[in-house]
Amino acid sequence: MIYKALVKYGYSSFKLEILENSEPNILIEREQYYLDLLNPEYNILKKAGSLLGFRHSEASRELMREAHKDRIVSEETKLKLAESSPKAQSTLVIDNNTGVIVSFTSARKAAEFIGVHPSHIAKSLGKFNFYLGRGFLVHKSDVPHSEIINSKAYIEAKNVGESGFKHSEASKELIRKANLGRSHSLETIQKLSANSANSKAVLVINNETLETIEFPSITSCAKYISVDESYVRSCIKNNKPCKGYTVVKKK
After folding, report:
1. Does residue 80 belong to any structural domain of this protein?
2. How does DSSP assign the chain, residue by residue?
3. pLDDT tens-digit profile of 100-122?
């Protein structure tokens, strides 16, 4: 549209002008302000940062179809696309023995990790909002952990008990690799660790600010500091600083 207008009216009929210098974090907001204020004729899209209202021509659609015909997408690319999708909803897998938390982009990926059929996870999530089995608790990230562990279905499942499943060395290695470099918010760490049967509260003191935070277990403390759990235990045992923190067991 702009190209046709330039050809029809000439470059002298148009000018390029900076309306406002804006900070990046409010750029969309300011763009929307000027779209509403000026209602520019050549702006097809009326919502800043969105393609709402835009439609490809049939010719463009045909070109895109041809471009994607017989195209093979790698598993890595599929995973990245799933993670970036606005509809993507992560699934949390919590190891009931170690308290280790792994986040997956879908229930299917979580099922593959645990080693069960995806339909088992899907049916349980649909009926109870959680899956409990093979030493793991699985639930969607948008369902509060406290809501699940206090539900009647979860309590009954816990009372029934599990079959004594143990991880193979290969599974343990997968868990370790999946958690390398992974971090969770302080709130998530505290909520997910609170249910551990082996948890013992520890206090974490920031050596610079002297701020003290209580964690329900050494596992959750290690995740917060971003170090290995064995390192935290060593620091407590030898009464030495732990990456800028002092960690002590709560009496």
Report:
1. no
2. -HHHHHHHH-GGG----------GGGHHHHHHHHHHHH--TT----STT--TT----HHHHHHHHHHHTTPPPPHHHHHHHHHH-TT---EEEEETTT--EEEESSHHHHHHHHTS-HHHHHHHHHHHS-EEETTEEEEETTS-HHHHHTSHHHHHHHHH--------HHHHHHHHHHHTT----HHHHHHHHTT-TT---EEEEETTT--EEEESSHHHHHHHHTS-HHHHHHHHHHT--BTTEEEEE--
3. 788 887 888 888 888 888 888 88
